[in-house]
Design brief:
TIM Barrel, about 260 residues, eight-stranded parallel beta barrel, binds zinc ion, 10 helices, alpha/beta, globular
Length: about 260
Amino acid sequence: MNFAYSQWIINPSSESIDFLKSQGVKAIETGPEFMLGHSETEIKAIVKNFSMAGIQFYSIHAPFTGEMDLSQINTEKRTKTIAVFKEFINRVAIAKIKCVVIHPGSVQNNDEESRLDKLRLSIETLLSIAEKSGVKLALENMPPGHVGDLSSTVMGIVNEFDSPFFGVCLDTGHANIGKENVLTAFENMRDKIIAFHFHDNDGVRDIHLQPPYGTINWTVLAKEIAKYEFDFPALVEAQPWNNASPGQLLKEVEAIFAR
Ligand SMILES: [Zn+2]
């Protein structure tokens, strides 16, 4: 299994790219600012510079903060969000990035059913754009209290659409603080996983610790995941433990999966 390193805000300087290369980083996932904060020409040039250093972008995180919520009830705001996502997906396609990770929604107030209906409408529009541009959408399981905080909910939505361009992102940290354990979430989501967010925590807070420094039983989980073929780099969505180097983080996570 291959792993990607998390750089939420892209640093396109040659020093930074050289550093990541020297650390053995072969793939990174970055946040939405990369697509929305740069011109198309800049995006292409940055992807090319990383690729020349042997670093690929497999997935990128879609916007989710503020009013960027695909399941919000307010039609006007949701329409604006969809417009941003359309532009985002178009740029992702230009950059030849294969997968966009999306959140089903923000915090819910006992209104998940109606929020999921709005999410379905948003997905309907965005999936047709994604399919045309050859970009896959990965719906992520959320921390408890958010729309989509159960693997069954996320899988339900994805299965309704039944598209090769629509799958799920298993977020281990979110599952570990949720109502189901990580292993159950993996079993439920397995057939549709097109992205991983590997991180750990204390079982209570979504604190994005590097595996295996929290309460997830990585020995069992890694053994289970290793039974299946996943042909994309799995993102370690955490900073190196104890301010160690990216290379050290990758070495430790690789060791978990090599057992
Ligand atoms: Zn995540």
